[in-house]
């Protein structure tokens, strides 16, 4: 198992490195300190910030929690003069009653992040401070994290399988989902998503209240561990 995956040839919108670096530097946090807090090596953070490595699903959640960002902020493309907020809710939006300027998100042009074997696409035109609303694709053999190191974070999750199959382990229970099945669970319960089938799984995934859930802010990370790296079966 390695702590990074090459991303040569990935579209610029898939690459979150500049946003991670901007948020870390805005908070005056060293590269080593960020690595220590999320339980990965400093070299992995260095590679990630230079777009030489790709974060996994679990690593992404650890990053946004430690840096105080939204997933949308990490997805945002940076250009000349773009300032990455140092933390808190996207663009300073309040937790309730934020304004929606662009209700429609066309099928083309979604903000996206690509993990090893997994693709997330945001289904809102702009950052939503209350909800992570995502179109997710799991390739055959991919998973959100290793079996021995399941994810947990703040919020409550809702998932709906559009096509293919997905195994969702929540605590000690495992659920085999196929097209049309839905699931909901407390995100603080250790959980893992995996595609054990032969074709892609496409699903709609929603995480509500992740950033406002203080339970997820102090999730312990084993010292020196490489947390939530995706496991890819051969």
TrEMBL record:
Pfam families associated with the record: Cupin_2, HTH_3
SMART domains to which the protein is assigned, alphabetical: HTH_XRE
Keywords: DNA-binding
Domain HTH cro/C1-type: 20-74
UniProt-annotated stretches for the region Disordered: 78-99
Gene3D superfamilies (UniProt xref): Jelly Rolls, lambda repressor-like DNA-binding domains
Top-level taxon of origin: Bacteria
Composition bias type Low complexity, residue spans: 85-97
PANTHER family: HTH-TYPE TRANSCRIPTIONAL REGULATOR, METHYLPHOSPHONATE SYNTHASE
Identification of the protein by name: Cupin domain-containing protein
